[in-house]
Design goal:
Layout: E1 22-26, E2 32-37, H1 43-48, E3 52-55, H2 63-72, E4 78-82, H3 88-96, E5 104-109, H4 121-130, E6 135-140, H5 145-148, E7 158-163, H6 169-178, E8 184-189, H7 196-205, E9 211-216, E10 219-220, H8 221-231, E11 237-240, E12 245-246, H9 253-264
Parallel strand pairs: 1-3, 3-4, 4-5, 5-6, 6-7, 7-8, 8-9, 9-11, 10-12
Antiparallel strand pairs: 1-2
Helix pairs in contact: 2-3, 3-4, 6-7, 7-8, 8-9
Length: about 280
């Protein structure tokens, strides 16, 4: 979560590599950038038990390649790729393999990859029905409201949402209606305007939300307290920059910290951000 507060765009979302026996990255040149096998088997065996696959730099994946990938990587647990590579064929292929053990699908969206592919509701519905417990992580660097709209649609089972650029209020309000399975929300920046109303809307309509990170935003102390009051029983992670908190007539930062700590049942304070 904390890495996404950095204003520098990472090549890809950090992944906990240590939990995987074998990892492979494939670049657009077709070369293997990184590979580690701790299983002790041969190259052929390690490829057939591949658990984490990152794909970047390709403009598209052909249906034949998708089918071969799915058939070959039946033990794949995490798949990380640009949003531009999504297609009905890919989702349906992932949904057709009964032995598929996929647990996490990570998608990264950047403005330079437009136009975005059109993925049908039917393909998403088939995918989410076949993998009902999938963790769908979406990292968005989009800034335009029109560009954000296609990312949130019915049957897209987003569980972890990371905004690397400031989303609009309309986008935030859409999350509550389109992402009922949301578990984690990270907002690196937001504005202009207060985040209070939009964050409360998400809290009210996303009953599974239990992790929130707020970076360069503006939210009143009273607004954050109201949010925590709604989510206290399920909120495991609350990361808020101290500089994002706006004191009001009812609460200052010290009183807010005390009240939030009481609600969460543990000591909580906002993150201190040194002013450069």
């Amino acid at each position: 979560m904390l890495a996404l507060m950095n204003t520098v765009k990472p090549d890809s979302l950090d992944v906990d590599n240590d939990k995987f026996k074998s990892i492979m990255k494939i670049s657009s040149k077709g070369s293997i950038e990184h590979r580690r096998d701790r299983s002790g088997g041969s190259d052929e065996d390690s490829a057939k038990t591949l658990q984490l696959l990152r794909i970047k730099g390709f403009h598209r994946l052909l249906p034949e390649g998708i089918k071969a990938l799915v058939n070959y990587c039946r033990y794949l647990q995490e798949l990380s790729l640009p949003y531009s590579l999504l297609s009905d064929e890919l989702l349906l292929a992932l949904s057709s393999e009964n032995q598929m053990q996929l647990e996490t699908l990570r998608l990264e969206v950047h403005p330079e990859t437009k136009p975005f592919p059109r993925v049908s509701d039917k393909a998403w519905f088939t995918f989410s029905s076949h993998l009902p417990n999938i963790n769908l992580m979406l990292l968005s660097y989009m800034t335009s409201e029109d560009d954000q709209s296609p990312l949130f649609a019915p049957y897209v089972p987003i569980t972890h949402l990371y905004f690397g650029e400031a989303p609009s209020e309309a986008t935030m309000l859409r999350i509550g209606y389109q992402c009922p399975q949301l578990i984690e929300l990270v907002i690196a920046a937001y504005g202009p305007g207060l985040l209070d109303h939009a964050l409360l809307s998400v809290a009210q309509r996303c009953p599974r939300l239990n992790a929130v990170g707020l970076g360069d935003c503006e939210i009143t102390c009273s607004g954050l307290l109201e949010f925590v009051t709604l989510c206290a029983k399920r909120l495991r992670i609350l990361y808020v920059w101290e500089t994002s908190l706006i004191e009001d007539s009812e609460l200052d930062v010290a009183k807010l910290s005390k009240n939030v700590s009481l609600l969460l049942g543990r000591t909580w304070v906002p993150e201190y951000i040194p002013l450069c």
